[in-house]
Amino acid sequence: MFDFKELEAFVWVVRLGSFRKVAARLHLTQPSISDRITRLEAAVGESLLDRSARPVQPTLRGREFYAHAERLLDSREEALQLFQNQEDFSGTLRLGVIETIAHSWFSTFLTQLAERHPQLTIELTVDISPFLHQRLADNDLDMIFAMDGVAPGLSVTQLPLATYEMGLFVAPQHADRLRQGGVSALSRLPFVSFSKLARPYGELVAYLAELGIDDPKIHCATTLMTIVRMSIDGVGIGSLPVSTVSDACQRGELLRLALPTPLPAMFYDAIWRTSSYPSFCRGVTRLAQECAARYATEHPRDPVGDGQWEEVKVWPDSLDKN
Fold it and tell me: 119 near 88, Cβ under 8 Å?
């Protein structure tokens, strides 16, 4: 079987008509060029060049083969260009994203990504982190924006992407009861959180246990917007990313509980298979980091306490460490 080096030598001999000129052009010795032509002819089983002619001429079959060889070399150059000019990337990126990101800065990110790579096609999946990691492991996704939790044995590249402060939010109809009843009233209200498989659920359970609420009633929802809606409607106390409910708080639809200690923040990474478009995925990650940083600047993490949002104080001042 022949390779591209042998094809290249053959094409240039036909073009220049001289082994010596081809050797100079390809920075090789004349015997090296001759060896490549000999191997190519052995592979195809026929003579491709008339070496007795001056300049060297292709044989009848050589002329026919020359057209195919040129196309093969041109196709190789086109393929290599895919990796040399990332702005011309025209493939499909199978991207998985958690819903918190999808409802914050993701639309801005997609708009800018399309501007940079107009030929790019996105196949988007929105799900919780454990399911995104499994789909990455199954090679159903090329890249995910999710919490860490990479499947064992999977070779990936992982870079920090965004941090979301978490808070507890309640509808105004429950505010007076919580202010008057304190922790006792809090423990009698249900909470609303993500799926039991999602990390925020487990972190909420552990956090409430530290505050003496050992057997909380927690309604689970698979989507962020469902948790927000249930919280606004007074179904329970929502455990939510602060920045994603800023508008609802400013409208007075939700009030934030003043906590004695912060809830664990959610840390998200950009994660992709090491073998999948590595330089392109790094460029995508840099753009996502820029969009996340800009969103964080436009949505301050802690408006409670500076008069922007109303808060509900449940714990006595002696426990309030904020």
Answer: yes
Q: Which domains does the chain have, with CATH numbers?
A: 4-82 (1.10.10.10), 91-164+267-298 (3.40.190.10), 166-264+302-313 (3.40.190.10)
Question: Would the pTM count as exceeding 0.85?
Answer: no
CB 302 within 8 A of CB 165: yes
For 159-181, write each residue's pLDDT tens digit: 999 888 999 999 999 988 888 88
Among 223, 217, 252, smallest CA distance to 236 is for: 217
Report which of 78, 100, 102 is spatially closest to residue 200, judged by C-alpha positions.
100
Residue 251: how many CB atoms within 10 A of its CB? Answer: 9
157 close to 281: Cβ distance less than 8 angstroms: yes
pLDDT at 301 exceeding the cut of 60: no
| Residue that the structure tokens 């909380």 belong to | 216
Q: What is the DSSP string of 165-207?
A: -EEEEE-GGGHHHHHHHHHHHHHHS-EEES-TTSHHHHHHHHH
CA–CA separation, 20 vs 16, rounded Å? 9
